[in-house]
């Protein structure tokens, strides 16, 4: 049953053009220039400091580095990061 | 950002979390569904962030059982402002009093304006209004409606034909229309008509009374023209002497009168004519000193007729010693005229007639004029004129009833 479930999802994305982040439970990351990163659908904060933010997702971590980071807003599944962004990295588990 | 909107209205607190990896405390908070914003790591073991005021209790609960230390840094928003404001007792009291004062002042009449009627009726209306309780300083809500006041006023002030009462805020506007009361003419008492001037009677029209003179009679001043005493006794029995009836004699007695008038007319005359060219100059003056403001150039014309208007400047209601004025310079031409003797005589006659007409009033008619004597002396014509005039010579003389 579960296998069918997992197989049908990519099919739905491909043929019905449904948003992949919703169906697969992946994080959606919106980056505005170098100043804002908006991450939805994450699963919690791993580390946070002035120049690094690490977020847990269902497949590994997202690591954002830069400088003068401020978490403009924190909600259960969303985070808005402000600062000077240098890189966004996906780190496997 | 929608979640943080309005937080300044409901109040928010900045908290400082101390401990190892303090960000995890915030993670715990959002895991509980709280909103956290502006999270900033200030040091390795310090992290600050904003939380809503009504979440503070929840955060304290979360802190229990952990090694984090929480301190509150900033309290912001309306509830804190309000609490700080409430703590200042005198400000609150003064605010309360001022609101009360505004309420109080906006509920009393400040002014009653009456327009459209003369002063004495205005006085009457305001007295009447006083008796209804409408005067500056009385409560608005204790008054009747403008319509009722209107009706009452019209009833109580007989001189008023109509009055409009209008209330605008704290001011009452009254507009009145005055009744014009026409008084019946007074009945004149018994009287005679007598002559004021000597003359020959030309026309008689007697509406009341017994005429004592006829047309073409010569009368002297003081002569009885129309008598107000009507004697009925002739027609009735001569035995019982009745009191004579007394009436107010009325009528119009036109007589020819004559006047002798002396006039002198100069043969040479000069007079001024304004050409219409003019120029205005403006100035301020204090005492005798004049400070020109506008119009410095001299006018091109030589003969000038000056006309100066001045007015005191006012500061509110006080008059200042400074005057503002304007001078109108008008060009004039002097003209000389030479008259012949005939022209001078004609001018003299016209002058005499005009003067006499002014003296006698519009009803008098000048019938004929005659030059009795004329002489030229020192460039002047001297005339002696004889004028015939038709005019009303009757004058009222009351009859004393001798009681």
Automatic annotation (TrEMBL), chain A:
UniProt cross-references to InterPro entries, sorted A to Z: Spore_YabP/YqfC (IPR022476), Spore_YqfC (IPR022477)
Origin: domain of life: Bacteria
Name assigned to this protein: Sporulation protein YqfC
Automatic annotation (TrEMBL), chain B:
Record's keyword terms, sorted: Membrane, Transmembrane, Transmembrane helix
Entries under Pfam families matching the protein: YqfD
Residues spanning the membrane: 91-110
The UniProt record lists the keyword Transmembrane: yes
UniProt cross-references to InterPro entries, sorted A to Z: YqfD (IPR010690)
Protein name in UniProt: Sporulation protein YqfD
């Amino acid at each position: 049953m579960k296998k069918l479930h997992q197989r049908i999802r990519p099919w739905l994305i491909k043929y019905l053009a449904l948003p992949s982040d919703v169906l697969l439970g992946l994080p959606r990351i919106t980056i505005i220039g170098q100043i804002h990163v908006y991450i939805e659908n994450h699963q919690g904060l791993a580390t946070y400091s002035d120049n690094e933010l690490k977020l847990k997702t269902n497949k590994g971590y997202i690591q954002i580095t830069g400088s003068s980071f401020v978490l403009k807003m924190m909600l259960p599944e969303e985070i808005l990061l402000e600062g000077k962004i240098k890189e966004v990295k996906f780190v496997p588990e | 950002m929608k979640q943080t909107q309005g937080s300044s209205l409901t109040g928010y607190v900045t908290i400082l979390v101390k401990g190892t990896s303090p960000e995890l405390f915030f993670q715990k908070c959002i895991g509980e569904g709280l909103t956290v914003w502006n999270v900033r790591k200030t040091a390795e073991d310090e992290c600050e962030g904003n939380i809503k005021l009504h979440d503070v209790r929840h955060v304290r609960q979360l802190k229990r059982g952990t090694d984090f230390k929480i301190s509150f840094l900033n309290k912001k928003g309306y509830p804190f402002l309000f609490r700080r404001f409430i703590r200042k007792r005198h400000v609150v009291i003064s605010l309360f009093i001022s609101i009360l004062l505004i309420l109080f002042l906006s509920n009393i009449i400040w002014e009653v304006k009456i327009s459209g009627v003369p002063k004495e009726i205005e006085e009457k209306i305001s007295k009447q209004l006083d008796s209804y309780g409408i005067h500056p300083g009385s409560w608005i809500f204790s008054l009747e409606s403008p319509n009722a006041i209107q009706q009452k006023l019209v009833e109580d002030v007989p001189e008023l034909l109509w009055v409009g009462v209008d209330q605008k805020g704290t001011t009452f506007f009254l507009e009145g229309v005055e009744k014009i009361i026409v008084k019946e003419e007074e009945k004149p008492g018994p009287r005679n008509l007598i002559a004021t001037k000597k003359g020959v009677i030309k026309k008689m029209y007697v509406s009341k009374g017994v005429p004592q003179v006829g047309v073409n009679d010569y009368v002297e001043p003081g002569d009885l023209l129309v008598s107000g005493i009507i004697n009925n006794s002739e027609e009735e029995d001569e035995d019982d002497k009745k009191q004579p009836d007394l009436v107010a004699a009325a009528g119009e007695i036109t007589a020819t009168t004559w006047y002798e008038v002396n006039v002198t007319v100069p043969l040479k005359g000069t007079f001024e004519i304004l050409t219409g060219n003019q120029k205005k100059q403006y100035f301020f003056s204090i005492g005798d000193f004049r400070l020109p403001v506008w119009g410095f150039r001299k006018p091109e014309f030589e003969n000038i007729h000056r006309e100066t208007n001045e007015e005191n400047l006012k500061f509110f209601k006080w008059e200042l010693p400074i005057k503002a004025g304007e001078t109108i310079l008008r060009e004039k031409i002097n003209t000389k005229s030479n008259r012949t003797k005939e022209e001078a005589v004609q001018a003299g006659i016209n002058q005499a007639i005009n003067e006499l007409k002014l003296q006698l009033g519009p009803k008098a008619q000048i019938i004929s004029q005659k030059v009795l004597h004329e002489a030229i002396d020192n460039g002047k014509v001297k005339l002696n004129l004889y004028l015939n005039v038709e005019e009303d010579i009757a004058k009222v003389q009351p009859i004393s009833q001798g009681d």
